[in-house]
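Data card: per-record layout.
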Amino acid sequence: MLGMTKAKFKVLDGANRLLNATAVIGGAGIPCIFNPSEFTIQRNVNYAKHNIPGLDRPVLQFISGEAEVLSVSLTFDTYSAGVGAVQPQVIASTAAPDAVKLDVRTYTEPLMKLSTVNSDTHAPSLVEFVWGSISFKGYIESITQRFTMFNMFGKPVRAVVDMSLISDKKD
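The structure for this 171-residue chain is written out next.
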């Protein structure tokens, strides 16, 4: 029986040396511990509104379109997940004491670094969100990590990462 496909982020341009993980660039990618429950893709278009006396509404004139934006919220939890060779394996939370729980930033920091401007290209890395047959290529527009649980020693063991990618499509 095949396991569930995990969502991940791939670095496409290989320019972000800050990740310090050769397996991430063009390889396995940055895995998500849990798949998102939902994500959105939004695209806006701009119109000029021309008010003409005697009409009850303005006449609209198309001006331009905007790039698509993917927004996703990801949960990372090392309190109830142990670390396997390839991806975390869910285990009972009482199986490992707090002292050996992995810091959740081990998983969130590579995502945070995707927004860092590379000194060679003067831009962040082009990334791809991949989940099964879903693929979205773009640049990190915004990213926020919120720590929601800590072990008894103050180590963060659960976080939510909210991020938006702006498409790089040139069509």
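Known properties of this structure: The mean pLDDT is 82. Helices lie at 105-113.

See the next section for split statistics.
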